[in-house]
Amino acid sequence: MSESATAPHSVGDVEATATASDRTTTSHTDERTIDERLAALEAQTDRLQERVATLEAERDALQEQVTDLEADREALQSRVQHLERERDDLQTHVEDLETELQSRPTFEFKGEGETLADLWVDGRPLFKSVAYQSARVEPLVTLVTGDANAEPDDIDACYAAHGALLESESESESQPGTETDTSPTDALQALRDRHATDHADLKHHLAKLRRQLTHLATETGVELVDAIPGDDKIATVKAQGVAAVESHVSATAERAERIITDLTDWARKVTTQQGTYAQLTAPQAREKFALTRDEHLQTTQIKRVFEKISSWAADSPRDVAVRKNPDGVWRLQIAVEPRGESTGCSK
Q1: How far is the C-alpha of 338 from the C-alpha of 218, rounded, in Å?
Q2: 332 has pLDDT over 90
Q3: Contact, 310 vs 320, CB < 8 A?
Q4: How distant, in Å, are the alpha carbons of 47, 116, 122, 232 from that of 129?
Q5: Distance, CA of 87 to CA of 277 (rounded, Å)
Q6: What gap in Å lies between CA 89 and CA 120, rounded to an integer?
Q7: What is the rounded average pLDDT of the residues 95-120?
Q8: Which residue in 342, 241, 327 sits closest to 284, CA to CA?
Q9: Is the pLDDT assigned to residue 225 strictly greater than 50?
């Protein structure tokens, strides 16, 4: 064997061998560390994915809850709207009942006893009303039957046959030398003509009274609203309030009082040959009530308010009208002053 083959390794060879061994060990250690780190990251990724899945499930559940809550809200809103409609219908029905109740006659006994002679209906003695109606009916019964004491069956029979009417007309109008064979149609036409004449005379008389009243109000310098405090309920409402003319103050009566109180601000002034009027339409009144009373009224409710004001003027000379204008809109017209004066109603 040669000398070089059997000689021991040199110091350099030993060091090189040691360094290579260290590098191998370090490389294995780094690989194990990387593997452990990767495993930890994969585990963390799995946990994050599980957390994301959990959050997505919670999100879906919350979305379902939100959808259910929105459906419940819409159902509640629909229920509220239905209840509001029922409330409005009930309010309208109550006001209709109040109007019907107010339109019924009032009964009271005045005097010492409780006989028919002491009974008053709507502020008038019943026996006088009966006597007045009897005085009106008797001439008509005589005209139809020829007998003021005819029974109802006799009246029906005569009316069906027209015989008594013809006979009465013939007896009352026939004179020697005149025709007596008047037909029922001619007799009825004669009645209509007389009624038209009486109506024209009455209209002329009322116009004359209005002119006299207007002249008196002009001479005194007083508005018509204040010129009739006794019989005019509108003037009473303006001066003393609605309770002075209504035993039971309904919502309709309160609204009517508001119109009378704020007439100069709410209504439009119109002057004609007959005088000056305050005009207020249903849409205008609806807007005013919404602004001042936060009430959103229907047209039928406004019409009842107008009719309430008209009923207050039924027993007075004041000219009050409730009718539709050419556009089909309900309008209230109230005479407020004679010709030539001014109340300050908005133009």
Answers
A1: 7
A2: yes
A3: yes
A4: 101, 12, 11, 22
A5: 36
A6: 36
A7: 69
A8: 327
A9: no
pLDDT at res. 31: 80
Q: How high is the mean pLDDT of the chain?
A: 74
Cα-based distances in Å from 51 to 12, 46, 54, 62, 341: 58, 9, 5, 16, 88
Instruction: Give the dihedral sign, CA 294/296/300/302.
Output: positive
Mean pLDDT lowest among 129-133, 281-285, 293-297: 129-133
Which of 24-28, 67-71, 92-96, 108-112 is predicted most confidently? 67-71
Helix, coil or strand: residue 26: helix
Mapping DSSP to helix (H, G, I), strand (E, B) and coil, where does residue 333 land? Answer: strand
- Find all residues with CB under 8 Å of 174, minimum gap 6, and list them: 180
Per-residue burial over 225-235, b if 16 or more Cβ lie within 10 Å, else e, is bebbeeebbbb
Residue 301: pLDDT above 80? yes
How would you class 260 by CB atoms within 10 Å of its CB: exposed for 0-12, middle for 13-18, buried for 19 or more? Answer: buried
**Residues ≥6 apart with Cβ < 8 Å to 101:** 248
**Residue that the structure tokens 């994915």 belong to:** 49
Q: Which structure tokens are listed for 132? A: 């007045």
First to last CA, the chain: 143
| 147, amino acid identity | D
In this structure, what token pair is assigned to residue 300? 């039928």
Cα 183 from chain centroid (whole Å): 53
Q: What is the pLDDT of residue 227?
A: 43
Q: Tokens at residue 122, please?
A: 């709507």
Pick the more confident residue, 150 or 3: 150
Task: Classify the phi-psi angles of 241: left when phi > 0, otherwise alpha if psi is within -120 to 50, otherwise beta.
Answer: left
The residues near 15 (Cβ < 8 Å, ≥ 6 apart) are: none
Pairing of strands 124-125, 119-121: antiparallel
